[in-house]
Amino acid sequence: MSLAIEVTDLRKVFTDRRAGDIVAVDGASFSVAEGEFFGILGPNGAGKTTTLEIIEGLQTPDSGGVKVLGQSPWPHDPKLMRRFGVQLQASSFFPFLKVGEQINAFAELYGVGGEQAAATLERVGLTDKAKTLTSKLSGGQAQRLSIACALVHDPELLFLDEPSGPLDPQARRNLWDVLRDINAEGRTVVLTTHYMEEAEALCDRVAIMDSGRILDVDSPASLARALDAPTRITVAAGQLSGEQRQQLANAGDELSGRNGAEIISTRDPKRVLTQLANWEALEDLSVHTANLEDVFLALTGREWRE
Ligand SMILES: Nc1ncnc2c1ncn2[C@@H]1O[C@H](COP(=O)(O)OP(=O)(O)OP(=O)(O)O)[C@@H](O)[C@H]1O
């Protein structure tokens, strides 16, 4: 397996006149395989952007090492920089340029022809917006244009910082489809996010970051499985008789109640679901298996807040 990125014991401290030293990145190490969809997931201020910008060569670390496609990102090597794309914030577009002009400007910057610019616009579904001013795009369209600009020179590796930050759920899902396709073409994609759902939906592996540290790295499913947490089955309260509740407890299930709901924590969800169906106690049924939120809670002792 070839590595697209290797990060070793990275550390970056900012000195703030008021707050003093802020350790933004505190000994972070991880690697990303070629072709992988990799996420850095963490709450606000975790150090995600700083880590990403160091990898991109936009910031230098105080200590530690980074290799991108086998090379250090500093000092800048134009040959290396051509091999990756960095999604700029949509707000950094020139507001008086039309969509087509904006992507052509990027294409020219990279010495890429207009045909490739048009194909990239098509790729993100913006061909019919080529003559629209960038300032008139919706949030989702602007995000897709910023991805097109980062892709126009056909890079092997794409970096995205909070790509779906301001988007509504539908626009976010459209963007996820675009990102999945980009990764399916064989490109490595690295993104930062504070949306658990986004990390779960897109990433092969996720680095969970908090207070500058990488707490764990694995696939979302493996991280959740490692918790070995019971499945929580919830139904509306008042549907189970005392005898039925006792039967569940005798089988080792834990019962609790909250907000008019009966919560059954079990190691044997199949049996419990069969029992509930037999007892016709399925009103407001929901089944919760451990997810990244539970992983974060287990790793930090804090609830996840988006
Ligand atoms: N240039 C800077 N000067 C001083 N402090 C900084 C600077 N850049 C980042 N920080 C601080 O470093 C810490 C990590 O910031 P960073 O932006 O990397 O986190 P993040 O996980 O990307 O958060 P967010 O999702 O809010 O962008 C924060 O406490 C932030 O305030």
Describe this structure as you would to a colleague.
By secondary structure, this protein is α/β, with parallel strands linked by helices. The protein has a 6-stranded mixed β-sheet, with helices on both faces. Strands 11-12-10-13 form a 4-stranded antiparallel β-sheet, with helices on one face. It has helices spanning 48-56, 78-81, 99-109, 114-123, 139-151, 169-184, 196-202, 220-227, 242-250, 269-278, 292-300; strands at 3-16, 20-33, 37-41, 63-68, 84-86, 157-161, 188-193, 205-210, 213-218, 231-236, 254-258, 261-266, 286-288. Helices cover 35% and strands 28% of the residues. The structure holds adenosine-5'-triphosphate. It is found in: Cell membrane. Its main location: membrane. Belongs to the ABC transporter superfamily.
Brief overview:
It is built from eleven helices and 13 strands.
Element order: H for helix, E for strand: EEEHEHEHHHEHEHEEHEHEEHEH
Helical residues, percent = 25-40%
**How many helix segments?**
11
Strand content: 25-35%
Q: Average pLDDT value? A: 92
Distance between the termini: 34 Å
Main sheet specs: 6 strands, mixed
Radius of gyration: 23 Å
| pLDDT < 50 stretches | none
Structural class by helix and strand composition: alpha/beta
User: Which ions and ligands are bound to the chains?
Assistant: adenosine-5'-triphosphate
Which strand order spans the largest sheet, edge to edge or round the barrel?
Answer: 5-6-7-3-8-9
Number of strands: 13
Shape, principal axes of CA atoms: globular
Summarize this structure as a short list of keywords or feature phrases.
306 residues; alpha/beta; 6-stranded mixed beta sheet; 4-stranded antiparallel beta sheet; 28% strand; globular; binds adenosine-5'-triphosphate
